[in-house]
Specification:
CATH topology of the largest domain: Zincin-like
Number of helices: 8
Structural class: alpha+beta
Strand order of the largest sheet: 1-2-4-3
Number of strands: 4
Distance between the termini: 43 Å
Number of domains: 2
CATH class of the largest domain: Alpha Beta
Length: about 180
């Protein structure tokens, strides 16, 4: 019995060591963007991807419709967020808007034709800005990281097969609640 407890303690210690980074060794992400705020870095990555796919609209008369609303929202929201808000028109199939960490707000051009009035557009953009102010994306990423770490610990402790079965059951439980 004592040998089993000792073995369990050893497995727990091994699992914890897997989750703790070794001191003095920086990860590649830390080497590349150590000084940059993680929100700015993530926002820049999304911007670069949209730019590479030629989805960002550089110039359009639709900016004349977007700018006054974006400026009013920025004046109200900027004191609540530590990075400047920037609004971009993008071209995608579905009318939509989305914001990324770092203050970039993307408005799909067709949304400007889809909304019935300025208030609907302003409401949509305020909703997206609120996600940024509340750091929703960063919070979600942190939660996912913790879940992945727990999964790694479970795989070490229980073995990959048992951990997979438990994870599948958990996903099914979550799916039934949605």
């Amino acid at each position: 019995m004592r040998a089993l407890q000792s073995l369990q303690s050893l497995f727990i210690a091994a699992a914890l060591l897997c989750l703790v980074p070794l001191g003095g060794q920086a990860s590649p992400a830390q080497d590349q963007g150590e000084d940059q705020d993680p929100e700015l870095q993530l926002g820049q990555e999304v911007f670069d991807e949209l730019k590479a796919r030629a989805e960002i609209i550089e110039s359009s008369p639709l900016y004349d419709q977007l700018r006054p609303i974006a400026d009013a929202i920025t004046r109200a929201a900027q004191p609540r967020y530590n990075h400047p808000f920037k609004f971009y028109l993008v071209h995608e199939a579905q009318p939509n808007a989305f914001a990324t960490p770092g203050g970039n707000v993307y408005v799909v051009d067709s949304l400007l034709y889809f909304v019935k009035n300025t208030e609907e557009l302003a409401g949509t953009l305020c909703h997206e800005v609120s996600h940024t102010i509340h750091h929703d994306t960063m919070t979600l990423m942190e939660k996912r990281k913790k879940i992945a770490e727990r999964g790694l610990g479970a795989a070490v402790l229980l073995g990959p097969t048992t951990a997979r079965v438990l994870a599948r059951d958990r996903r099914q439980d979550l799916g039934q609640r949605l």
